[in-house]
Structure formats: C-alpha cells, structure tokens
C-alpha cells in the first residue's frame, strides 16, 4: 500500500512539475511575444438579437506560440496578471484592434477585457486616453468589460477607475454577470452602461424553467437600470429567439461566430444601406 501511495504521489508531482515548467517558459517568453505580435486579438461578433446585425466585436487574446500552437486566454492571462505584463498586453491588443477595425464612426464598436489588477495601475486611463487620441478612435466606440468579481472585491478602485473611463467617453460593461454577487447598490453606483449575462446561466435556460426565470429577472434588472443587456454563449437559434423574447438586446456565441483572427471587411454596411 505504501509503494502504491508513493507511486501516485510521484505521478501527481510530475504533473505539477510539467505545469510549473510550462508556466515558467511562458512567463519568460511573454514580453517578447507581446512585442512581436505572437499574442494578438481575435474577434467575436456581438449581435443585435432583433435585426441580427453585428453591432460590435469582443477582443479576445490568443497566443500563436511557435512550439505549443494556439493558446487560449485562460492559459496565459493569469500569468500576464501575475507578472505585471497585463497592461502592456491590453494596450497592444487595443492598438492592434483599432488598427484592424478602423476609425469610421459607423463601424461596429470594440469591447475589450480589463483585468482587475489594472484598477491599481495609475496610468491606465491616461494610457487608454493616449491611444484613443493618437489613433483618433471615437471613444464612444470602445467598451471596457470588467468582471463582476473584480468590481466587488475592489469596489473603491473600481469606482474611481470607472469614473475616469467614463470621463474619456468610453462605455463600461459588467462582465460575467451572475457569477460575482454584485449588489444592486454596486450596479447603480458604478454607473455601468451594459451587462453581460454569464454563459453558465444562459446555457441552461432551454432545459430548466427555473433557470429561465432567473435569466428573465436578470434581463429585467438590466433594463430597469437602463443597461444594455448582452447574453453570452448563445449556441442555438432557439436560445437566441428565447432571449430576444425575454427582452435581451444583444447576444454573443458560437451560433453567430466563434472568435476569429481577422475582422470580416465591414461588408454588412453597404448591404444595410441598400435595404
Ligand atoms: P469572457 O470575457 O467571458 O469571454 C468569453 C469566452 O467565452 C471566450 O473564451 C469565448 O471564446 C468563449 N465563448 C464565446 N462564445 C461561446 C459559446 O457560444 N460557447 C462557449 N462554450 N464558449 C463561448 P476565451 O477567449 O478563451 O477567453 C476566456 C476568458 O479569458 C475571457 O472570458 C476573459 O475573462 C479572459 N480574457 C480573454 N482575453 C482577455 C484579454 O485580452 N484581457 C483580459 N484581461 N482577459 C481576457
Ligand atoms: Ca468578456
Ligand atoms: Ca464574459
Ligand atoms: Ca465568462
């Protein structure tokens, strides 16, 4: 029994070792990967559920790693946060995505994720404002997504940062709503513009009437607070239609498109004009 235990322990140990090693490697390579463009934006469309037009794109980070292939955000964002490279990473994604989408005022908006750590960065607003000025990107076409957990655990920093971002003219969305216990007070006090209902709730509503009522209540709450409501993780037509019927305005999910490395040339616009 003793050797068995030993065996499994060692196995676990090697596993840990490998993960730590990978982490160590990524940590060392990250700065170079940001500068060389190995880490870059992918875009996932945000859809008006009523008209099915693309109204915006969420910017999601991907790392084209020369040895490890395509890495999704979960495998390196935490490392970027811990090493303090998250600011650099975010600004690089913002610059690149503005370049990709262009500065036309009628094009879809960009929605970019901020990490809670960035609330502590005193240069955050100045840097974002600088990028907007330098690129002449219209501030009202930029939305910042901040998770509910981040807002609540760092409420004072969050409020100060949000006020500054609003002063620049940006929109702020509460990301992953339903996962972080933001109270009504927070929702009002932070003067948010939009609310994104987490995929974990959205996915279940077709199977479970209770879940459906919860999401319905979230959408009502959003509307009562005059927030634009977005549902994440829409994978079927039925789900899209149900959410629209519940009053949800915008949606995002594999039904409409997975994150892709290139923006489709804004081809929806002439089409719209022709209608
Ligand atoms: P998130 O902000 O909630 O982003 C949505 C995630 O759900 C994305 O995963 C997206 O690919 C995935 N997704 C979208 N539609 C569907 C769907 O219909 N079904 C399913 N199953 N999944 C869907 P991704 O890109 O792997 O990102 C994971 C998380 O990493 C993000 O969650 C966000 O919190 C974080 N993240 C991504 N990019 C950045 C970034 O540039 N900065 C920061 N700070 N965080 C980022
Ligand atoms: Ca997000
Ligand atoms: Ca989200
Ligand atoms: Ca999520």
Automatic annotation (TrEMBL):
It comes from the Bacteria. This is Bifunctional diguanylate cyclase/phosphodiesterase. Residues 23-273 form the EAL domain. It comes from Methyloligella solikamskensis.
């Amino acid at each position: 029994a003793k050797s068995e235990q030993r065996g499994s322990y060692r196995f676990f140990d090697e596993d840990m070792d490998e993960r730590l090693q990978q982490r160590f490697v990524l940590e060392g390579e990250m700065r170079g990967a940001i500068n060389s463009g190995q880490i870059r934006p992918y875009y996932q469309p945000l859809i008006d559920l009523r008209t099915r037009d693309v109204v915006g794109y969420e910017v999601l980070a991907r790392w084209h790693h020369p040895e490890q292939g395509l890495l999704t955000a979960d495998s390196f964002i935490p490392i970027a946060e811990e090493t303090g490279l998250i600011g650099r990473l975010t600004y690089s994604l913002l610059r690149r995505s503005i370049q990709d989408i262009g500065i036309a005022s009628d094009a879809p908006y960009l929605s970019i994720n901020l990490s809670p750590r960035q609330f502590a960065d005193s240069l955050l607003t100045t840097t974002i404002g600088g990028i907007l000025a330098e690129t002449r990107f219209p501030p009202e076409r930029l939305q910042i997504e901040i998770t509910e957990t981040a807002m609540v655990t760092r409420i004072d920093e969050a409020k100060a940062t949000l006020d500054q971002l609003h002063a620049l003219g940006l929109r702020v969305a509460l990301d992953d709503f339903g996962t972080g216990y933001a109270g009504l007070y927070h929702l009002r006090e932070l003067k948010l513009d939009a609310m994104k209902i987490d995929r974990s709730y959205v996915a279940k509503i077709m199977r479970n009437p209770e879940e459906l009522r919860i999401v319905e209540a979230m959408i009502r709450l959003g509307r009562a607070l005059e927030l634009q409501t977005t549902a994440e993780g829409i994978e079927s037509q039925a789900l899209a239609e149900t959410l629209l019927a519940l009053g949800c305005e915008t949606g995002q999910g594999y039904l409409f498109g997975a994150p892709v490395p290139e923006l489709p040339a804004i081809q929806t616009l002439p089409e719209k004009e022709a209608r």
